[in-house]
Amino acid sequence: RLMTTQLTFDGIRDRIRSIITDLYHAIPSGVGSSGAIRKLGKGDLKAVLEQGSRWAVDQGYGTEEDLEATEESGCMVGADGSAVSDRALSRGADQLGTLGSGNHFAELGVVEQVFDNDAAAVFGLAVGGITVMIHSGSRGLGYQVCDDALVHMRRAAAKYRISLPDRQLCCAPVHAPEGRQYLAAMAAAANFAWANRQVMTALARRSLCESLGITERELSSKLLYDVCHNIAKFEVHDVEGTRKRLCVHRKGATRAFSGSRSETPAAYRSVGQPVLVPGDMGTASYVCAGTDRAMNDTFGSICHGAGRMMSRSQARKRTNAAELVDRLQGQGIIIMAQNKRTITEEGPDAYKNVDDVVEVIERAGIGRRIARIRPLGVVKG
Questions:
Q1: What is the pTM of this model?
Q2: Known catalytic residue: 104?
Q3: 134 close to 121: Cβ distance less than 8 angstroms
Q4: Chunked in runs of 10, what are the mean pLDDT values of the chain (381 residues)?
Q5: Separation of alpha carbons 180 and 304, rounded Å
Q6: Which of left, alpha, beta for 106 (phi over 0: left; psi -120 to 50: alpha)?
Q7: Active-site residue among 104, 135, 229, 304?
Q8: Strands 285-290, 301-303: pairing kind
Q9: Does residue 239 contact residue 24 with C-beta atoms inside 8 Å?
Q10: Around 128, how many Cα atoms within 13 Å sit in the side-chain half-sphere?
């Protein structure tokens, strides 16, 4: 998700390190990170799984406007907390409002370039403006939901006589009991992820205000958009001239709906749904907009990031954490992380050039460049 603010680069340029330090302490990060808010009991946790971002807002972590700027309003229909195992519940009980590790991050950025002035104005983006991007998901709870499903799906594939070219492609018919069970658990995990990012949004806002000694009104932070990936959703699309209800899987992809779709927030229908394409912690991220071409060619989807050039193990062998931190600091980018290993795995050299990736998106017609955001400081796990 991406938040805009009333802050400007000129206004905070001398405070960036302290801002990032405070953000690092405000949002727990790293493998197994916990403790952002009180440990949730089973009742509260099941409410999170079934209400998503709504639960967080009702607890004081955000506003109604945040829900309007979140895909599915932050709550996926069909979620069932009882479809999630006790093991998954225990893993998620103290992880709400935490960043985690891997490619997850909280990033302070500045709008460096605008490509579409009209759309940028609608999105609240202007050159020199300060933004906060948060990338995280359902943490250990979602991981366990997947782990549990793999066991059930492998049995289901044999039960329904589905031939698998690879065990990792295990599956079950959508309307079979196993399929319905997984969809209910997956939706619950998605709701946990939305609530997780919503809580972190509130923590980030409070941190910025405390760090700069300003009020929330002076910060004037607005959620531009929150969009998910690695999820399957039921949507209606045109298929060879016929409207059909489909189960659209977006793995490594994110939704990019045009303004003609009712799912796109009303405020954005004149320009298309905001699409967030992160690059890496040393280059830039892009805000794009969905197009009608995407609806026709890719079921309203584009990539959810630049994509890796090398595996994590390769990156660790080729990168020295201290040298990378110094290099990025020389470029004006402050990096803070719980683990040096994460820094080496997530270095810029491990990722494709985001400028090239977004150029391909635009030339293919499935997304429009709206703005380029340069990182000023990044919190990693």
A1: 0.96
A2: no
A3: no
A4: 98 98 95 87 96 98 98 97 96 96 95 98 98 97 95 95 92 95 97 98 98 98 97 96 96 96 97 97 96 97 95 93 94 93 93 97 98 97 79
A5: 26
A6: beta
A7: 304
A8: unpaired
A9: no
A10: 6
